[in-house]
């Protein structure tokens, strides 16, 4: 298994727009393309409350290459992305890492935890 860790740093005031784009567009398209999410998080305490961190679960690099390319080139995604940024850019910076678990890792135990209630955004 490969875990993709992505961190999106939003422009001030734009995190709600990114979250809405995920719910309304990205996640339904991920389902269409067979992309499995491992979870989405916003920062409660840390360097920036302008970030969305999420994990995608892949069986292999080959699977990632095929499915991610299909997603980012999907005409529905291109339209949704453009429409969501019609009033300005949302994301200032993206950090991306592809991780492989150690033999003593138990990522499913972490991902199965219930979410923490946080203050509302924006």
Strand order of the largest sheet: 2-3-1-4
Total discrete domains: 1
The beta-strand count equals 4
Fraction in beta strands: 25-35%
Mean pLDDT: 89
Just name the CATH architecture: 2-Layer Sandwich
Biggest β-sheet, characterized? 4 strands, antiparallel
Structural class: alpha+beta
Q: Outline, from the CA principal axes? A: globular
Helix content: 25-40%
Element string (H = helix, E = strand): EHEEHHEH
CATH class (first level) name: Alpha Beta
Unreliably modeled segments? none
Number of helices, counting only DSSP H or I runs of 4 residues or more: 4
CA distance, first residue to last residue: 36 Å
CATH topology: Alpha-Beta Plaits
Radius of gyration: 15 Å
Relevant terms:
single chain, globular, 122 residues, four-stranded antiparallel beta sheet, 4 helices, Alpha-Beta Plaits, 27% strand, alpha+beta, 38% helix
What does this 3D model show about the protein?
The chain is an alpha+beta fold and 122 residues long. It contains 4 helices and 4 strands; from the N terminus they run βαββααβα. The chain has helices at residues 15-33, 61-72, 75-84, 107-111, and strands at residues 2-10, 36-42, 51-58, 91-99. Strand 2 (36-42) and strand 3 (51-58) form a beta hairpin. The mean pLDDT is 89. 8% of the residues are buried. A 4-stranded antiparallel β-sheet has the order 2-3-1-4. The protein has a single domain, classed as Alpha-Beta Plaits.
List the helices and strands and how they pair.
Elements: E1 2-10, H1 15-33, E2 36-42, E3 51-58, H2 61-72, H3 75-84, E4 91-99, H4 107-111
Antiparallel strand pairs: 1-3, 1-4, 2-3
Helix pairs in contact: 1-3
């Amino acid at each position: 298994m490969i875990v993709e860790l992505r961190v999106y740093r939003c422009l001030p005031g734009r995190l709600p727009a990114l979250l809405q784009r995920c719910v309304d567009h990205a996640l339904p398209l991920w389902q269409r393309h067979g992309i499995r999410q491992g979870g989405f998080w916003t920062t409660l305490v840390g360097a920036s409350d302008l970030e969305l961190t999420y994990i995608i679960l892949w069986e292999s690099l080959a699977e990632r290459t095929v499915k991610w390319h299909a997603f980012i080139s999907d005409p529905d995604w291109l339209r949704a992305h453009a429409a969501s940024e019609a009033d300005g850019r949302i994301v200032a910076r993206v950090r991306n890492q592809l991780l492989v678990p150690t033999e003593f890792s138990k990522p499913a135990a972490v991902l199965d935890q219930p979410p923490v209630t946080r203050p509302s955004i924006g």
